[in-house]
Amino acid sequence: MFEHQDSLKSLRKFDLNLLTVFEAVYYYKSVSKAADILGMTSPAVSQSIQRLRQYFPDPLFIRYGKGISATVFADSMHENIKGSLSGIIDIFADKGDSIRNLVIWSDPHLAQVLIPDICSHLMSLPKLKCRIVHNLLPEDAVGVEHALLYHKTDIIFDIAPIFNSAIESELIFREKIVAVCGKDHPRLKDSLSANSLKDERCITIMKDRKKINEFKSKIDVLLGKRVISFASPSSLIALSVIEKTNDVGFFPESMYEKFKNIYNLKRLECDVDLGSYEVYMSYSKKALQDKALLELVERVRETFVMNNKSVHP
DNA sequence: TCTAGTCTTGTGCCGTCGGT
DNA sequence: ACCGACGGCACAAGACTAGA
C-alpha cells in the first residue's frame, strides 16, 4: 500500500490554495497587501484565513494595531511549508525547464561520432538545464520504436529509419565502410582484393540487425566468402583484436579515423566499392515541444546535415 | 475626538461538482 | 443533460486601532 495513501485522501478535502494565501499573509503581515499580490480582495483573503483556522487549533494571525501579527503556531507552520511550497512554485515557474535527463539511444560507434559534439554544444548553453544520458540501442526494432512512442528515450541515432507517422526519422549523414588491418600486417600492404582476402581471416561484428546483415552479405558478394576468426558485438573489442592479430575487419570510416593510432591500424584500399550506410536521427514529433530536445535536433542538423560536414576530422 | 487605514462579517452571485 | 448543493469571491458595511 502506498505509504501516504490516507494522508492524500484527507488532503483531497483540503483546499491547498489556502496555503498560498497563508504564505502571502505571513510574508506581508497584511491582509490587504496579500490580497493585492494574490489578485484577490481583502475580504476574500480574510475568509481564506478563517477557513484555514478550522483546520488548526490556533488563530494563526491576530489583529495587532492596524495590521496583524503571526502567532508562534503560524511561525512553525510557515517553517514547515515554505520548502514544499517553493518546490511547487519552482516547478510552475520553470514550466518543465528544470534539470532533466535528455536520453539518447545509439550504438557505441555512432555515439562516439555524435555525442561529444552534442554534449559540448548543449553544455555551452547556460540557460538549458539538462544532462545527457546515453544508452545502448537494443537489437529489437519494435522495442526501439516503442521507446520513442512511450517517451522512454528522447532521440535515437541508428543506421535504419523508423517508419511510424508519429515519429520523424531524418537522414543526417552517410558514412563509408573501410577495410582495416594492423599496421604491420605481414602480407597486406595498402590494398585489399578478393584474391588477397582469400588467405586472410576476418573479424565480424555480431549483431542481429537487418542492416548489418545486409552489409555482411554485400561484402561476401564483393570479396567472396570470408573465414571468420572472431566475432563480437563490440566494434572497439574487434579493433583491439585486429591490433594483436593479422585479421581483417570492415568498419565505419569515422571509427577507423578515431582509433587508427590507438590500435595501430591501417586502411586498405579495395578494388571494389564497399559502399556506405546511412545514419538516421529519430524522435517523436510530439516531443519536439521540449526546448532541450529541439536544441539537440537543431544542433545535429546544423552540424551533420546542413553543412554536410564530414563525420571525421 | 476625528480621520484614515486595515481587518472582519454578512450577503448575494456565480461557477463547479456530484448525483440522478 | 439537468439540477441541487456547496464553496469561493466581491461588494458593502461595520469594527478596530493609530495618529493627528
Quick description:
Pfam families: HTH_1 (PF00126), LysR_substrate (PF03466). The protein folds into three domains: 96 residues, Arc Repressor Mutant, subunit A, CATH 1.10.10.10; 105 residues, Periplasmic binding protein-like II (D-Maltodextrin-Binding Protein, domain 2), CATH 3.40.190; 102 residues, D-Maltodextrin-Binding Protein, domain 2 (3-Layer(aba) Sandwich). The chain is built from twelve helices and twelve strands.
Key phrases:
Arc Repressor Mutant, subunit A, D-Maltodextrin-Binding Protein, domain 2, 3 domains, 8-stranded mixed sheet, two-stranded antiparallel ribbon, disordered C terminus, DNA-binding, LysR family transcriptional regulator
